[in-house]
Here is the input.
Amino acid sequence: MCGIAGIVNARLSSQEIGLALGRMQHAMFHRGPDESGERVFADARAGLCARRLSIVDLENGKQPAANEDQTLYAVLNGEIYNYKPLRVKLLSLGHRFRTNSDTEVIVHLYERYGIGFLDQLQGMFALAVYDTRHRKLLLARDGPGMKPLYFARTNRGFVFASEAKALFASGLIHAEPNLAALNVYLAAGFIPAPMSAFSGIEKLEAGRYLIVDQAGVQGGPFWEYRYRAVDPIRSDAEYIEELDGLLRNAVRSHLAADVPVGAFLSGGWDSSLTATFAAEQAGSNLKTFSIVFPDDPSADESRFSRRIARQLGTDHYEIEYRSSLLPALLPKIARHLEEPCSRVPTGVLFVLASLASQHVKTVLSGEGADELFGGYERVRIEYPYLLRRFAARAPLARLADWCSPGRFRRALRILSAPDERTADAEWNRVFTLGDKRRVLRPEYQCSALDLEPALLSLPALETCQDILQRRLAFEFEGRLGNAILFEADKMSMAHSLEVRMPFLDRSVVDFTLHLPSRLKVHRGREKVLLSTLARRHLPSEIASRRKKGLAYPVGAWSRPPLNTYVRELLLSSDGPINRAYLQRQLPIWLEKRNGEESQISSLVALQTWWNEFIGAKAGELSAVVAGRSA
Here is the structure.
């Protein structure tokens, strides 16, 4: 795991490129505290750099990695789980290696197959390969979107990095708000790629590559989420046996490291199955980590995580999360997230990652299972869609805009949506167009896009054969990649911790794309096939549990100390929020303690981000980055 960055086609001297690379890698120190590496290509006016968290080939895995004649160089953020068989194949073809690292395998794969090598990779990655002979840069990002990658096209060169802070440290671009992206955020709760919160900065979309050379910038997909035909003669028993084998193999490959690997353990099916298969390989050497909610017994699942930890005999650790921690954590979270995101409990994962990082460098997680196998309650509910054919959409849309947040308003938005994929997005809408006109100051309003960039892509939609497939595809392409995985990377790497996700192994994802919908959700049962696997391997009290998502304690924003913090933050800070409106509305939201919590948390995330990057504190952040490189 690393932080990577680079500059190509630069209008800078070699010395200036070297200084910029030094500042960029220092800005990402937390992503790779073990070592750094830089390479300037003077003739090409380009350079690459990396911060390394050493997990594979501890002694020799330094980046950038080169081919035999040092004409190709690569940097990698992530892990390539099938790099060993790929290396064996390349050796048989005559390639020579200096190290045992997965990054060097990428160089030789590119040398042999060009951009076609991307289809051979199984792993989580954001990578860059630079061809010094043709002055060509290749960027690519894994299919689910587990590793982030930012880039900017400036008049002094093309620059890319694992974090926006590194782009600012380059001196080629500065932090300015992207008002269109912020307005999409207020509707969706996250900012979908390729948009970013900053003007002039883009995020490479999941499963896509980018080529930058003297002719310009071009790109396309190398992996896409597309459903496939179901085998009509396969039995349910065959499906369960295949899944059992695939998940075991995925966990085995994700345990491969030259350092100990731990596991997050919530006590639900996903993390418990992951930990169970990991314990079969690691035994009592496996360390597991859980979060405890002492202030909210209804949210606390520690009795279940302790139960599975005892059965597996793991070395188990717990850490408490209390709402009183959040005011001090939110500025740190905003600095690491680099954009507002309210669809995941970032503070909870931040605390959990801080615990795990004290004991291991990498952990397994159960992320992705809900999106692949149908774990969310909302994907099981169909009645709003059945009523859409009878709905008078225009009047219902106007009525929804003035209703208080809650189930009735959500139902109205779904009924009045212009099409089915927009209706899917309305399930999780935070602010309507009318809301945004009221909550934002006029000069910051830019509502034309609204939810559109967050909708399911049309190519994916064309492969959906039923409502469930469409809604799961929306969850996979949208919230999973742009919020859940985004947050998992940023919050873990804030503590120099790598999170690996076996459910998002390519073999498991491909398996679910030809899995019948009845084995995902059927007659109100979620994750049907996975529940069979849970009954096979987990204690009955865990196997019989229903889905309970990780979240902040219910009502926390409306209780001390968060309610006081919310008032102080939102009513005393400069920025895009209309304080006059909030002075009237905020007390009502804080008192009701219902659907308004999503709106409160969204505005808190926006204002905190604004304070850290755009407002008065932005200068302080720049000074910190500059100080590290001094």
